[in-house]
Design a protein that fits this description.
Blueprint (H helix, E strand, L loop, with lengths): L4 H27 L17 H35 L5 H5 L6 H10 L1
């Protein structure tokens, strides 16, 4: 159990920027389909000018933070353990802890 402590802490810390990725992905899934032509359609309720203007910004944020988190995961969970000749198993088994800060934030907001 002791050898899982450091990987768990590192993956929880990686989970902090992962919350930005999840929030951007959640917003983009809900409102990213909006376009200027959609403002006139009565069947698409919820499309506003603000959502259309923010769509590109949120998509850029999603890509940038997503790549940053992917880089952190590769560095912390694959490259560093391999360079120190440590087993990958504890690092990969604690990888789902990356989603834990977002899950805590989502349940606190609900």
């Amino acid at each position: 159990m002791r050898r899982y402590r450091a990987p768990l802490l590192v993956n929880l810390l990686i989970g902090i920027p992962m919350t930005a990725v999840m929030l951007c992905a959640r917003w983009y899934a809900a409102h990213g389909h909006c376009d200027l032509d959609d403002l006139r359609r009565p069947d698409l309720d919820g499309c506003t000018y603000d959502q259309i203007e923010n769509s590109d910004l949120v998509l850029c944020g999603l890509v940038v933070t997503g790549l940053f988190v992917l880089l952190l995961v590769l560095l912390a969970d694959v490259f560093l353990p391999r360079s120190r000749r440590r087993p990958l198993t504890p690092w990969l088994l604690t990888l789902p802890a990356v989603l834990l800060p977002y899950a805590l934030l989502a349940t606190a907001a609900a």
